[in-house]
Design a protein that fits this description.
By secondary structure, this protein is α/β, with parallel strands linked by helices. The chain has a single domain, classed as UDP-N-acetylmuramoyl-L-alanine:D-glutamate ligase (3-Layer(aba) Sandwich), CATH 3.40.1190.20. It is built from nine helices and 13 strands. Strands 5-4-1-8-9-10-11-12-13 form a nine-stranded mixed sheet, sandwiched between helices. A four-stranded mixed sheet has the order 3-2-6-7. β6 and β7 form a beta hairpin. α1 runs parallel beside α2 and α1 crosses α7. The longest helix is centred in the last third of the chain and has 16 residues. The radius of gyration is 18 Å and the shape is globular. Bound molecules: alpha-D-ribofuranose.
């Protein structure tokens, strides 16, 4: 099975702040850094570092060499990444003294994949393959519909979550990987057990991974539920922790690893990522995960 990731590719402008800025407040940042990011790019890099064969599909701008290099250097196939005129998508990220973040994403129209891009991407894949998606790229529901029509497996990380998403063909999703905020938006529940109960009823053909940050993670298939506690570390920057979890978990199950093992490795890789600055830069290699496990 090949996995193609239809995902965002962003330049992250990261500001180190004491606390997340409040409405009306002006705040001085202690540090500013430029990192490679985008939920799509981060997840592709995590999959590749975890040993999976991964094809990234998306768009970068004229300033996108650093982003393409990061994907290529990690071992991601970038033949489905189109270069477009204009600036790449970018983010403004605040990281506070506890490593928590908040993120604004902006991409100009030139960075939006078109229907022609989607058709070109899907031409290289078959019903034996899977498409991974987040919700940062334009035309995500169209990609979902076309991939489903082709009989591909759909893996969906509904992030960033919005109400429009409820009209996507979510019944076609094989795996949802989501956090408690996204779980609440899809179910109206806040308790993890209840989120899983509602998702089980709404999407009986899907499997679920629900991540809860320092409170661990759940995986649910049609017959079973598994819980994985979080590894305790000092958080420096939580950016891309979820993306690292997603990449390592998917690499595990796509190689035939039992779900509890894939969950444990994903939780461990993610704990390493939160102890480092940046998004893609914080994702550990498989050797680091193997060494410390
Ligand atoms: O999940 C973290 C990512 O979200 C960042 O790298 C940023 O680019 C946004 O897409």
């Amino acid at each position: 099975m090949k996995i193609v990731n239809y995902g965002s590719i962003n330049l992250d402008h990261v500001y180190q702040v004491d606390h997340i800025v409040q409405p009306g407040e002006t705040l001085l940042a202690a540090e500013q850094n430029l990192f490679c990011g985008g939920k799509g790019l981060n997840q592709s890099i995590a999959l590749a570092k975890a040993g999976a064969e991964i094809f990234h599909a998306g768009v970068v701008g004229e300033d996108g060499d650093i982003l393409l290099d990061a994907l290529r250097d990690a071992g991601v196939d970038i033949s489905n990444v189109r270069r477009a005129p204009g600036a790449s998508a970018h983010t403004v990220i605040q990281v506070d003294r506890n490593g928590q973040n908040c993120i604004i994403v902006f991409s100009g129209e030139n960075m939006h994949p078109s229907e022609a891009d989607i058709d070109r991407i899907l031409a290289g894949f078959s019903s034996d393959d899977a498409v991974l998606m987040q919700n940062e790229l334009f035309n995500t529901p169209l990609m979902m519909r076309k991939a489903a029509d082709k009989g591909m497996s759909i893996i969906f990380n509904p992030s960033p979550v919005n109400q429009e998403m409820l009209s996507y063909p979510l019944e076609a999703v094989s795996w949802f990987l989501l956090n408690e905020i996204e779980g609440e938006a899809l179910t109206g529940e806040t308790d993890p057990g209840k989120i899983l109960d509602v998702l089980e009823k709404k999407y009986p053909h899907s499997s679920i991974v629900l991540t809860l940050g320092k409170d661990g993670a759940w995986a649910m298939t049609r017959n079973e539920r598994f819980f994985q506690p979080a590894y305790k570390v000092k958080a420096v920057d939580t950016t891309a922790a979820g993306d690292t979890f997603t990449g390592y978990f998917l690499a595990g199950i796509s190689s035939g690893m039992p779900i509890p093992d894939a969950l444990r490795r994903a939780a461990f890789a993610s704990s390493i990522a939160v102890s480092r600055k940046g998004a893609a830069d914080s994702i550990p290699t498989v050797e680091e995960v193997n060494r410390a496990e």
